[in-house]
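The freezer alarm interrupted the setup, so I double-checked each line after restarting. Inputs confirmed:
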Amino acid sequence: MSNISVTVPTFAEVRAARLRLNSRIHFTPVFTSQAVDERVGHSVFFKCENLQKTGSFKIRGAINAVSQLTALELSRGVVTHSSGNHAAALAYAARLFGTTAHIVMPTNSSAIKIAAVENYGGRIVKCEPNLAARLSVAAAVQSETGGTMIPPFDHAQIIAGQGTCAMEFLEQVPDLDVMIAPIGGGGLMSGTCLAAKSLSPTIRVIGAEPAGADDAYQSKLQNRLIPQSNPQTIADGLRTNLGDLTWPFIRDLVDEIICVTEDEIIAARRFFCERTKLIIEPSSAVALAAQFKRNRDSAARPQRIGIIISGGNVEI
Amino acid sequence: MSNISVTVPTFAEVRAARLRLNSRIHFTPVFTSQAVDERVGHSVFFKCENLQKTGSFKIRGAINAVSQLTALELSRGVVTHSSGNHAAALAYAARLFGTTAHIVMPTNSSAIKIAAVENYGGRIVKCEPNLAARLSVAAAVQSETGGTMIPPFDHAQIIAGQGTCAMEFLEQVPDLDVMIAPIGGGGLMSGTCLAAKSLSPTIRVIGAEPAGADDAYQSKLQNRLIPQSNPQTIADGLRTNLGDLTWPFIRDLVDEIICVTEDEIIAARRFFCERTKLIIEPSSAVALAAQFKRNRDSAARPQRIGIIISGGNVEI
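Predicted 3D structure, all chains:
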């Protein structure tokens, strides 16, 4: 994967990403819910990336990466392997910059995810549903096309792009005491730490994970990167491993990780959807479930808590 | 039902209602969707009353009515019979003004609707699931408590309150060519006509109905009020008859009524929810389904179309 930059991004790169994204994506709204506030005893703010272009925050990193390609690189296309939101986001970003996205997707990908990629003009290359097949098929597509590999999270430009979400959030709600986001591969969380800790050094950044895919929690506990084995969770966006680039952010900048059960995820999602009328992915409910759990032994004074709702792509 | 005013409201009463509602309800946002615009070839704007307090537009009429009660009337409470959004809205409005809502609900009401009324402090009086029982139990509760009956739609203050939705909508999107809303009892549609035709005399107002509950369509066709018999539709908010007060608005001010099948309702709801990430009731999808149908033989020049999304209370 020779095209992957291993530069660790800085906050300057988040700022630069913000300018590249400007007017190409939605400045997503912040929702509040009286019912949530009453339940947790704090003021909770939701940054609604489910209302973002392509239905998730992933478009931020994808556009930030694709917009920096040279004309020659654009003429050769971009490549990734993903069955999720990154696939749709990269297809959308590629179309925006007049290039082709070659998306390696496992044969068991859901119909709605395939339809989203096709809808944005992506070229789908099917592969067997295992990691070895995904990697080898992606490598073959890359060598065949000369395209640039844009991985879903372990990439400086992707991390910098995802950081623009927290940056916007702190403009919309400047005095947050806490920011909570889910952790899958760690791209969103790395960008969130980078932006939030730079703009608001005293903010507490909390990661949320399913108990059945708690590699970040275990890694922090043992202070070394532990791969996720056999993830068991409905939060399909959070089954991935941390990466070599994202792990240092999680290790050094995340203040706390809270793990939640499947029942807690389902209950939090139902509560949120019924009260706000917004559709969110199970992965996004993980962050609210973490706050619900946290609340039981929370601070004495009322806090202002920001929760990043990462996406809303579910089959209706 | 001696407490029901039979005054037909004017636009002045919509304006007055607006002042009464001010700061007590949400100024709901207008959403747009690129996918919807591409599909219909016009610019479509959605006024999101699913994001309103209590999850539907019904709070507008309920607060407008309850806020005009005297201290003596407030001391005796309010009464209605409803298994739907009006029940929750009236309970909320009653609590806001320090009075009690006695809500007659059929024993087969859904758990979530009962929970909503209880959550807002309403007093539920159960009755057999038929109209005769609802009317007689409501009359008994009224004579027992001396409370004021606040019916769901056939009431001048309710109609005036519902009209504030279209009034806001035309402030948010001033140059709409068309406004579409669903028709159940006709309270929302009557208020919509009143406000929209007053503020924008050339606007085309279109009503949307399920083919399985098309009493307004049939009534207009025959130019006389025809009661709904045996309604068959998943759009549970649209099964009711028009009333004596709402029928003249529908007859004289609605330009066209479009009926849609159950399949069209379901497909429109799925399309809307998947693309906007907003949860809407089947009744709200009826208005979008009408536009989808309308589109096939629509105007040559691109139009600006406003659709009122009436509510979002569904079991998750």
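Quick read of the result. Residues 156-172 of chain A form the longest helix (17 residues).
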